[in-house]
Amino acid sequence: MSSNRRLSQAISEGDGISLLVPVRDIGAAQSAEADGAEGVVVRDAVAGLRTAIGLPVLVRSDDRSVRVPTDADACVLRVDDLSGDWERLRDLQREAESLGVEPVIGVKDDDELELALEHVDPEIVLLAPPPPDLDEDLLESVLDLLPDVPAGKLAIAEVAVRTREHVVALERAGVDAVIVTSGDIAALVGGPTPEV
């Protein structure tokens, strides 16, 4: 299935950082779209979702079998799910691209990022550090990873943001998009919903 909605285009166009909202159903996706989200994130396929909204759909599955969904615009392929099998990750990346699904390579630390850049050279990187020790801040962990993402690559942060200030900090650092929890998306966008 070829997609005409590119996640890379949605998060690189326009001013500022893009908000990607996890949803479970079509109603939540439509609400996120109305509130100014620039993409939705699902764990599993949601029947009819791609025809119900005009936003790119990113699949971030919990399924450890690592597969490329055909009903998405983009999918996360996590380095740690493949236990260092770089050939398999390259195969999945090529499979996704051949299906018109943009591969987003998920990394949790500097080592994974360095190896991913060396072995698969992703266009889009998901910075998803594990929950830190109590004395560390997850937002800081993401910001520490960001300088290692080469210019020209797109960076998505997977970090809990609860205020507009968190979004602004990520934007100033150069993050292209952030996966936020659903809720008051309009407040995180920081202004009126742009007209389309």
Account of the protein in words:
The structure is a single chain. This protein has 196 residues and is α/β, with parallel strands linked by helices. It has one domain: Alpha-Beta Barrel (TIM Barrel). The chain is built from eight helices and eight strands. Strand 6, helix 6 and strand 7 form a beta-alpha-beta unit.
Quick structural summary:
The protein contains eight helices and eight strands, in the order αβαβαββαβαβαβαβα.
**What is the number of helices?**
8
**Total beta strand runs:** 8
Strand content: 15-25%
What can be said about the biggest beta sheet? Answer: 8 strands, parallel, barrel
Strand order of the largest sheet: 1-2-3-4-5-6-7-8
**What share of residues is helical?**
25-40%
- In the CATH scheme, the class would be Alpha Beta
Here the CATH topology equals TIM Barrel
Q: How many domains? A: 1
Which CATH architecture? Alpha-Beta Barrel
Q: What class do helices, strands and sheet pairing give?
A: alpha/beta
Taken in chain order, the helices and strands follow as HEHEHEEHEHEHEHEH
Shape assignment: globular
Going by CATH, what is the homologous superfamily?
A: Aldolase class I
The average pLDDT score comes to 86
* Straight-line distance between termini: 26 Å
* Unreliable residue stretches: 192-196
Rg from alpha-carbon coordinates: 16 Å
